[in-house]
UniProtKB/TrEMBL annotation:
The keyword Isomerase applies. Residues 656-674 have a biased composition (Basic and acidic residues). The record marks H33, R139, R140, D143, Y148, W155, R302, R490 as: Interaction with DNA. It comes from Candidatus Merdicola faecigallinarum. This is DNA topoisomerase 1. Monomer.
Length: 707
């Protein structure tokens, strides 16, 4: 009989906690949720005040029996599930199934799985926070109602098996709306003029960009305007009119939140959101470190706070001062956004002395990469600013002005360790301007006019979509990854390189939902609902009242849509391909794997074939149609329809009208495939070699410990 039983979600977390607690303590895992709404029906009794009809999850019968047996044998049962709304709900369901009364319920939470944090939590148990449970129930019930009521509309009008969701449908809408912006974008011409100027004293050149005339900024929109300016300054002297010297500080980014961790892991490491969260979970729950045992390496990874504890702050100071010197340390506090839950700290390493390099051999390559990113980001957040010397120079050519800006890094500060990247730019470069004097003449060496065109907004990547969802208040840290994973799995969107592109199926589903459920599938409504969940979590609103307020108008809207669409048939897109069996023109349909061609005479004629996409530019080599195909990794390439019979045209680059194909100037699709195959073989050999080396190290350390 154990004195105390601790229930957590996962075996990895259980193994890490076991070593901190001596005596007759048993630690077991619930393997996530043990009760949920049924899959086969709505599972919400709308007639009885939206009471959820929870059932035990199928396949968990033996686990529940085992948990009941352990709970009965223990003097105290601690529910130590994750410290968020989902974890609180799991604890609440466990208490119900194990028949633990409210007075006997011992709920414990810790933001990091360390000996100090775990022992402190066990000494200070609390009751289950019903407000947090209700916030989770509200989300679960509302999402179930929306999905179960809207999805059948898609089944009737598009195809069975499709799903609609409150957050996922808004995410798809953002991606479709962005695609439409790109498609309807009209580029506008503009010009810049760059002057290469020589300082005769130092014999150094620098570049200045055209600014305007008589201190007023000018925009140049045509070659004619450029020619007029060049004509006016053709024989003019270039005189230094103004010099401004200064100092600029660049401050470090705050510790990671879930969102910023996902964005940086995507940009710096190329991780998907799903991979980032899986690797972070393993680092949080515990990794077996040589000579230390199982260690939880980071704090809880679902958070929207940048706050850090005083203990962590002291540990960071000690590390920075010892490794870099006193002048590299700065005690920093970061403001958490107004709408953040702020229930946990930012994401940081649990032990400052466990440097990434020192434990690299105990981690998988992915664990090492993410741990290193989290470690460096946190340490940098407590370091001094980088300092630049800046110089802004105005050069006059008669009435016209050119401007040059330079900066030189004089103190690296936090940039010694870590620099945040963004979608648009990488690290800042040093641009040095020679020492100049006002009224000094500089020699014009070259004037370089450059034509450019405005560009459409970029497609979303996983990183930029997470940023947009967070900025617009859609979802919360725990929902970003499953939302994007779901819409990829449903094939509403697909990845082209790193870009998220809506599929035809995604466009059709989005059109149907936004036209008929516009009040639900919109950014403002989704953000408002998230705020209401927060109100419930704080005890300021009752969850069933919130659901009722939503449900009554929503139910009427569903009934209205079903009536309006009852006699509406989805118009199918007719292709230019005749059915070889019956002669009808085949129609484009959407299946699980995208578009395909089907005979409209079904069921009399069941002919179907793959859909081949073509472009409106002829083959640069033979003039036939060019097909668009995809690699296994969803990258587009272009191939002549006569390849390989009579034409060998194949290219990564989309052909342009009138352009002649020169196969010597580009790597062919086949060459790249061969190169990737070679790289994969090398990587496999390298991994095998590393594994062998690690195995030898482990055997040697075991022999050493035995002796």
């Amino acid at each position: 009989m154990s004195d105390q039983l601790i229930i957590v979600e996962s075996p990895a977390k259980a193994n890490t906690i076991k070593k901190f607690l001596g005596g007759k303590t048993k630690v077991v895992a619930s393997m996530g949720h043990i009760r949920d709404l049924p899959k086969s029906k709505l599972g919400v009794n709308v007639e009885n005040n939206f009471e959820p009809e929870y059932i035990n999850i199928r396949g968990k019968g033996d686990l529940i029996k085992s948990l009941k047996k352990d709970a009965k044998a223990a003097k105290k049962v601690y529910l130590a599930t994750d410290p968020d709304r989902e974890g609180e709900a799991i604890a609440w369901h466990l208490a119900h199934i194990l028949e633990i009364g409210e007075e006997q319920c011992l709920r414990v939470t810790f933001n990091e799985i360390t000996k100090t944090a775990v022992q402190k939590a066990i000494k200070e148990p609390r009751k289950i926070d019903q407000n947090l449970v209700d916030a989770q129930q509200a989300r679960r019930v509302l999402d179930r109602i929306v999905g179960y009521k809207m999805s059948p509309v898609l089944w009737k009008k598009v195809r069975r098996g499709l799903s609609a969701g409150r957050v996922q449908s808004v995410a798809v809408k953002l991606i479709v709306d962005r695609e439409e912006e790109i498609e309807h974008f009209i580029p506008e011409e503009y010009w810049n003029i760059y002057a290469t100027l020589l300082d005769e004293k130092s014999k150094k050149t620098f570049e200045a960009k055209f600014f305007g005339k008589n201190h007023k900024k000018m925009e140049i929109h045509s070659k004619e305007e450029v020619d007029n300016i060049l004509k006016d300054i053709e024989n003019e002297k270039y005189i230094i009119d103004d010099i401004k010297k200064g100092e600029k500080k660049r401050t470090p980014a705050p510790p990671f939140t879930t969102s910023t961790m996902q964005q940086e892991a995507s940009r710096k490491l190329g991780f998907t959101l799903k991979k980032t969260m899986a690797v972070a979970q393993s680092l949080y729950e515990g990794v077996k470190i040589e000579e230390k045992g199982t260690v939880g390496l980071i704090t809880y990874m679902r958070t929207d706070s940048t706050r850090i504890s005083e203990e962590a702050r002291k540990a960071a100071k000690e590390y920075i001062v010892n490794h870099y010197g006193e002048n590299y340390y700065e005690n920093r506090y970061y403001k958490t956004k107004a709408d953040s839950q702020d229930a946990h700290e930012g994401i940081r390493p649990t032990y400052a002395d466990l440097e990434p390099e020192s434990i690299k051999s105990s981690l998988t390559p992915d664990q090492y990469k993410l741990y290193r990113l989290i470690y460096q980001r946190f340490m940098a957040s407590q370091m001094a600013s980088a300092i630049y010397d800046t110089m802004a120079v105005t050069v006059k050519a008669n009435e016209y002005e050119f401007k040059a800006n330079g900066q030189v890094l004089k103190f690296k500060g936090f940039m010694t360790l870590y620099v945040e990247t963004t979608e648009e730019n990488q690290e800042e470069d040093n641009t040095q301007i020679p020492e100049l004097e006002i009224n000094q003449e500089v020699i014009k060496q070259k004037l370089d006019p450059k034509q450019s065109f405005t560009e459409p907004p970029p497609r979303y990547t996983e990183a930029s979509l997470v940023k947009a969802l967070e900025e617009k208040g859609i979802g919360r840290p725990s929902t970003y990854s499953p939302t994007i994973t779901t819409i990829l799995e449903r094939r509403y969107i697909e990845k082209n390189q790193k870009q998220l592109v809506p599929t035809e199926l995604g466009k059709i589903v989005n059109k149907l939902l936004t036209e008929n459920f516009g009040d639900v599938i919109n950014v403002e409504f989704t953000a408002k609902i998230e705020d209401e969940f927060d109100q419930i979590a704080e005890g300021k609103e009752k969850w069933k009242e919130m659901i009722k307020e939503f449900y009554d108008p929503f139910e009427k809207e569903v009934e209205k849509v079903e009536k309006e669409l009852e006699h509406v048939e989805l118009v199918e897109e007719v292709s230019d391909v005749p059915c070889e069996k019956c002669g009808r023109m085949m129609v484009i349909k959407y299946g699980r794997y995208g578009k395909f061609l089907a005979c409209p005479g079904y069921p009399e004629c069941k002919n179907a074939k793959p859909f081949v996409e073509t472009i409106d530019v002829p083959c640069p080599k033979c003039g036939a149609k060019v097909q668009v195909r995809k690699t296994k990794r969803k990258r587009n390439y272009y191939i002549c329809e006569n390849n390989p019979s009579s034409c060998d045209y194949i290219s990564w680059n989309k052909p342009k009208k009138g352009e002649k194909w020169d196969p010597t100037k580009e790597e062919t699709v086949e060459e790249e495939k061969a190169k990737k195959k070679t790289t994969r073989k090398k990587t496999t050999r390298k991994k095998a070699s590393t594994k062998k080396t690690q195995s030898k190290k482990t055997s040697a350390s075991k022999k050493k410990s035995n002796s």
